[in-house]
Amino acid sequence: MARLNVNPTRMELKKLKARQQTAKRGHKLLKDKSDEMIRQFSVLIKENKRLRDEVERELSEVLRQFAIARSVTAPYSAEAAFAVPSVAVSAKCGVKSIMGVEVPDIELITSKRSEGLPYAYAEMTSEADFSVAKAAELLPKMVKLAEVEKAVRLLADEIERNKRRVNALEYIMLPQLEETIKYIKDKLDENERAAIVRLMKVKSKG
Amino acid sequence: MEETGKTAFVGDGDSITVFKAAGVAAFAAENESKAKEILRKIAKEYRVIFLTEELARALGGFLKRFDEDTYPVILSVPSKNGSTGYGTELLKSAMERALGVDILFNGN
Lengths: 206, 108
Known about the structure:
The structure holds two protein chains of two kinds. By secondary structure, chain A is mainly α. Chain A has three helices and two strands. Chain A has one domain (10-200): Helix Hairpins, CATH 1.10.287.3240. Chain A has a two-stranded antiparallel ribbon. In chain B, strands 2-1-3-4 form a four-stranded parallel beta sheet, with helices on both faces. Chain B is α/β, with parallel strands linked by helices. Chain B has helices at 13-21, 32-42, 53-58, 60-63, 86-99; strands at 3-11, 25-28, 46-52, 73-77. Helices cover 41% and strands 23% of the residues of chain B. Chains A and B meet through helix 1, helix 2, strand 1, strand 2 and helix 3 of A and strand 1, helix 1, strand 3, strand 4 and helix 5 of B. Strand 1 of chain A pairs antiparallel with strand 1 (3-11) of chain B.
């Protein structure tokens, strides 16, 4: 490992020792952070998988059913029937922090404009009623999945970055500092020994 | 920071209608270039965007730019043709990136 390019003086030694202390403390902190993030991540990813499986299954079901319902209605009247929704969905979008990573915190707000379905019963078949109701039911779950999945992705990025930082400290910065400190110490000791030997020589001649 | 955002659904014609009825803004996109155009337009306004898997897969590179920010949240969902497994793939890649190992699927 290459050592840093510094003069072997006491000043430098002192500076480097301080840097090494900081680096060591930083390394420990980052490592702890990494551990905790990974713990949180594994909880989140399990929830993500569970939600995704559920949503995928139910959504495919809803869409398939709806496609069947649509196929028995004239396309024009189907379009018209669904043009005006009875409910308006909006989401309260906040931000929460997981280990310093900002992740979305979404809450779904449904405001009903009128009771029941947005079209006359004569216009559509009952399969359509059913799938629309099902879709509305599914929405909160989908939004939750969106939230969790985004959090997982953001957290994965952060874990990766953090890992790189920990590795840089552990395998480059710390060995470098250690080696340089050792080099300076050796050099200073050597100088000291040289001085003593010189003194002894001078003394023995006199 | 809390504000009210809107949700949108982008997908092929048949898949979106039912969500329109459920109160989500729906945008029809038959192909990827159309979807890209729509996404560009609505990414600022809408906070949660659902995208069908077929489109999400085709737009993989384009969607990466939204990965860094907290919002908008873009979620790929199966269309009426059923799940293609794209969502699971994304999940898996995130897991492998972060942990280096597969703790959910055990290699399948």
